[in-house]
Amino acid sequence: MSSERPTAEELRQGLTVEIVQEDQDVHSEDTEPLIGEVGTVYEDTPDGPRVELKNGVVGHVQSVVHDE
Length: 68
Description:
Elements: E1 16-21, E2 34-41, E3 50-53, E4 58-64
Antiparallel strand pairs: 1-2, 1-4, 2-3, 3-4
């Protein structure tokens, strides 16, 4: 899987992203990514940029969700 993860610099508030919650294994096939709008961007980590969504969920961005 060669998904291009964005960097924290590329993210902005209101962008819709797919994240994996911090307490889940980012590399697990069983992990259900969550989709939501970025509220706060923290920092880049090896697991992807750490963000808090507007609904309060904190996790690592896996990809940006583009509007169809």
